[in-house]
Fold:
Amino acid sequence: MKRGWNIFWVCLMIAVAVVTYAMKDSAGRAADHVMQLRAEIAREKQQLAVLKAEWGVLDQPSRLQVLVERYADYLGLKPLDVRQLARLDDIPGRGPMPVGNGKTPGKPLDLLTASAASGVDPVRTGSVATTPKLPKPPSSKTAAAKSAEAAKTAASIKHTEPAVRKPVPLASPAELQTGYLE
Amino acid sequence: MTMTLTDHPETLNRAPLMRDDSAVIEARKRQEQTRSRIVLAVGAFMLLYGIIGGRLVQLGVSEPADAAARGSAASAVATARPDIVDRNGEILATDIRTASLYAEPNKIVDPDEATELITSVLQDLDATALRKKLSTKAGFVWVKREITPTQQAQIHDLGIPGVGFLTENKRFYPGGPAAAHIVGLVNIDNQGIAGIERTVDERGLSDLHNAGFAMKTNAQEPVRLSIDLRVQHVLRDELVGAMQKYRAVAAMGVLVNAKTGEVIALASLPDFDPNDPVDANKPDRLNRITAGTFELGSVFKSFTFAMALDSGKVKMTDSFDARSPIRVGRQLIRDSHPEGRYLSVPEIFRYSSNIGTAKMALAIGQETQQDYLRKFGLSTKLKTELPEVATPQVPRRWSTAAQMTVAFGHGIAITPMQAAMGDVALVNGGNFLSPTFFPRTQEQAMALATPMVSKKTSDEMRWLFRYNAVNGSGRHADVPGYVVGGKTGTAEKIANGRYVEGHYLNSFLATFPMDDPEYVLLVSVDDPKSEKPGLPALAAWNAAYVAGNVIRRSAAFLGVQPRTEQEGHPDAMLVSY
Structure:
């Protein structure tokens, strides 16, 4: 009886030792991984800083001006004139326009549905004199199909979301940003 | 307590006792000895564990990061600085790590091969010198300081034994001289020594360092300035052009938001490249806008008009006798374009009559004039964030002559920034603001503002400025659509204590759009020559053109909406408010 107990205690001790060692080992590996990630983040940040500085050099107005002056003739570039600037309010408003079947103009939505039914766009720009023959706008049926498709893709995104999220806890940024390598 | 560690201490002093007694006594003695030994052992172990436990508590209580932080602080403090960005987030100054290539010649196997490989990447290195350097038995030599990341990668990929890199932090200014006088400089230890870099240090970055924070570059928020890099470039570019076109000695300009007092652009030429500041300390490279004082000439008349109108002693409808020059002591005050008649107040402004302005100053009175100068911030030192600020030079003795010359901007030397800020208050409804290089909203600015002149005076000044830009000397600065208003100033320069004819400091103080002023621009060109023979070298023929060009090119960036022709008429100024 006493011998049985002894064997039990020895086995338990070995088991606990093994578990402890496994925990210590995995903690060590995790710490190594953290170090590695921190080093990687530091490198990436370094790279970002360099790239930002480089972009700062490339985006300098003085450099752009030289380039603009060099290619002004080739690209037909001209300085902006004050007269070319206007507010949206300065554009004269459009008068009411009859819809294809001669009804009084309704709300924008009515105009759209009417155009979808008649196949003619009621919106006319000033530069187009005659009734424009525009390509047929998408009918309500295809629009509905499109929205269904969009819903489907949205659903599929929702479906794959957990799979995407899985590796996130591994690289939790809140912890890693406190790196001391920089 | 003495103890013997022998197993049989009794053998040393064996007493001649009875056999029975001695056996009993011996047993007791042994018992006592055993007990004392156990106590000793327990005590020793308790002491040992006590020490270990105490040390554990000590380690647990003390901050574990402390030691590590102290070790890295020495190197980190010198290097980490926040980025400086403009109001749109464009980088003006940043830290980049540069690698420096070193070699350990005693570890290099084949110096010839190493030399060949290194020079294949760094072609500007002298191969013979490098071979000689690597052939020695030295422990450490620099091969090249500050190489590019690409070169570093290439050399690293070559895998030469005995060659390594050390990284150093270096302050980098992508714009070079674009905003040199605003951003400033750092020294070799990355400490700010001029401009905003120094202000950032003085504002507590060094305190943070001393407290053990702010050691990581990425932990520091970038410092956002009120500068707009695009407008800054336009201003500097136009001034560079003006220096060449008019063969000027120097040029300077500042653009300030009239509603908030934020400095949008500031340039002073000649300037320097902060990346290579070899000539940053030359006396002609100082920031003339805040650290230089000048007699600005007729630009100053704006302030005399404002104080005359605000004091109520002069009305817009008044007229002054400008028929003959005024003689005061040795000095003769005359007009450069004499009209030789009575001039109304707007006409004095338009023709920039020295005689008329001097008479207006006499009408105000000396006390009032000095009070107003103080109120306009023209006789006291400017308050702003830049460390380089000069104190204005006012007349030591306020004689009648001084009173009259100060009225048209002679005998008083102020910094151009003070003139710009005075004008800001003249056009924004009379609220005097301190210039700032950091973003602030209109509400924040108004909370700090002090009333300078009345709203009515401000409206009258706006009318005068616009009237002058339409009919007077400011015509060349007017940009259709942006309703520019302003005042020219051609001041004779002083050399060896005398005014020299033919050498001028030409300024233009502009505001746009004049119906609801948003920005104030001051441009000065130092000692310009006439563009073509026959043209005068006066402010209206150079500074005004420069100001007009700056406004034309930058107004769209600044979000100023173009006005129609009717809205730009001087008389529309008064009704639009």
Observations:
- Chain B is about 40% helix and 20% strand.
